[in-house]
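Lab channel / #folding
Pinned by the channel admin:
"Please post every new chain as: sequence first, then the structure tokens as a reply. Keep commentary short and put observations after the output so the thread stays searchable."

First post following the new format, from NK:
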Amino acid sequence: MRVVALTFHDVVGDGQAPSAVSDGFYRIPAVEFEALLSRLRKVGYQTVASKEFRAWQRGQGELPRRTVVLTFDDGYAGHLDVVAPLLLRHRFTGVFFVVPQLIGQPGYLTWERLKRLVFLGMEIGSHGLSHTPMTRLSPMALADELVRSKRMLEERLGIEVRAIAAPGGFWNQTVVEAVRQAGYDSAWVSTIGTNGTETHPLSLRRIAVRPPVSVDRVIAMVEGQSASLWLAARQQFLIRLLKRILGVYRYEQIKRRLVPDA
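Reply from TO:
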């Protein structure tokens, strides 16, 4: 059995002005997001949280025959106002990776609204303490980033946090070991592909959904069609190559010039 995880960022409701902190390179309209959810439900997919996927990997439970993991990065305010109602409408759940130092800032969820997501049955994970690429941190700073973000979320929300997502997709073996030491048991990265029982739990693969959303193409990837996965992997390779050549700061500056409102 193979499971695909999809990554979303900001989802903007009809007639809603995008937040100043929202990244247009990843921002999608709610109508396109709901169209995708509707198709997933129509063809028989069910969602599971990260913790349920990991239980299956350990042989401690079964997954539905058609399973998809829906993840949401950065903790945008719209994740409660727009995303959660649409997930519930289609009887889906999601994993929300948030950045503690951004909670309560303009355009992001507050602690109280984050608690509401927990109440609605959504899983909360860490997206780093400050959203700094983890491969750029010293060993001491990396450990602090991982431990403090986990502790803050657990103490403020009253939950156990076992999942983390890599900010910016930056990941290497040093980060893997630090994540393990910090007490996480699953880490979701930006490598394109499917996940099985043999997939390393601290290098689980995700596929970012970017505008314009082609429902047919996303469904093809969820169903593991090699051509669609290959194309997504080539695009991801190009993005990583540009980040490596230009550096993250220059890459972001160029992206914002090329993509409206990015």
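NK: The beta strands are 4-8, 11-12, 28-29, 46-47, 67-73, 95-98, 123-126, 163-165, 186-188, 207-208.
TO: also worth noting, The longest helix spans residues 226-246.
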